[in-house]
């Protein structure tokens, strides 16, 4: 499956030259890892965000967010955000910051 390279580039621009950030192809798209922990990614036209189990309910209440379920088994602490919901830079920035903050709170891999 192809992924939205434009969205991936917008994420790269947000993350800048942070040496803790790496990229890896995952889930048929691309993932951005912080300290070896996945923070955000792009699958198809959508944004994947790791928010953690405690923040998942609030995240799902935001526009365009839904449960991350690619295999029939929802992934706890993850959401998928419709690409249309992150068309504005401020919306994308908020989701990327949330995913990165959660990943930074985990032990490095």
Features:
single chain; 109 residues; alpha+beta; Aspartate Aminotransferase, domain 1; 6-stranded antiparallel sheet; 3 helices; 29% helix; methyltransferase activity; RNA methyltransferase; TfoX_N; methyltransferase
Compile the SSE list and pairings:
Blueprint: H1 5-15, E1 21-26, E2 29-34, E3 37-43, E4 46-50, H2 56-60, E5 65-67, E6 78-81, H3 89-104
Antiparallel strand pairs: 1-2, 2-3, 3-4, 4-6, 5-6
Helix pairs in contact: 1-3
Ends distance: 27 Å
Structural class per helix/strand content?
Answer: alpha+beta
Number of strands: 6
**What do the pLDDT scores average to?**
95
Q: What is the strand arrangement across the widest sheet? A: 1-2-3-4-6-5
Biggest β-sheet: count, sense, barrel?
A: 6 strands, antiparallel
- Ranges with pLDDT <50 over ≥5 residues? none
Helix content: 25-40%
The outline comes out as: globular
Number of helices in the DSSP assignment: 3
- Please state roughly what percent of the residues sit in beta strands, choosing from under 5%, 5-15%, 15-25%, 25-35%, 35-45% or over 45%: 25-35%
The CATH class: Alpha Beta
The whole-angstrom Rg is 12 Å
The CATH architecture name reads Alpha-Beta Complex
InterPro entries: TfoX_N (IPR007076)
Protein name: RNA methyltransferase
GO molecular function, one term: methyltransferase activity
Keywords: Methyltransferase, Transferase
Explain the overall architecture:
The chain has helices spanning 5-15, 56-60, 89-104, and strands spanning 21-26, 29-34, 37-43, 46-50, 65-67, 78-81. The chain is of the alpha+beta class. It has a single domain, classed as Aspartate Aminotransferase, domain 1. A 6-stranded antiparallel beta sheet has the order 1-2-3-4-6-5. α1 (5-15) crosses α3. The chain is globular, with a radius of gyration of 12 Å. InterPro entries: TfoX_N (IPR007076). Residues 19-102 form the TfoX N-terminal domain. It comes from Streptomyces actuosus. Pfam families: TfoX_N.
């Amino acid at each position: 499956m192809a992924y939205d390279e434009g969205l991936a580039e917008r994420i790269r621009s947000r993350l800048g030259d942070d040496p803790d950030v790496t990229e890896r192809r995952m889930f048929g798209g691309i993932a951005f890892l912080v300290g070896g922990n996945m923070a955000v990614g792009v699958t198809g036209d959508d944004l994947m965000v790791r928010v953690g189990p405690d923040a998942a309910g609030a995240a799902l209440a935001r526009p365009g967010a839904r449960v991350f379920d690619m295999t029939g088994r929802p992934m706890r602490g993850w959401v998928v955000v419709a690409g249309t919901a992150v068309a504005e830079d401020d919306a994308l920035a908020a989701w990327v910051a949330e995913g990165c903050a959660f990943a930074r709170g985990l032990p490095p891999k």
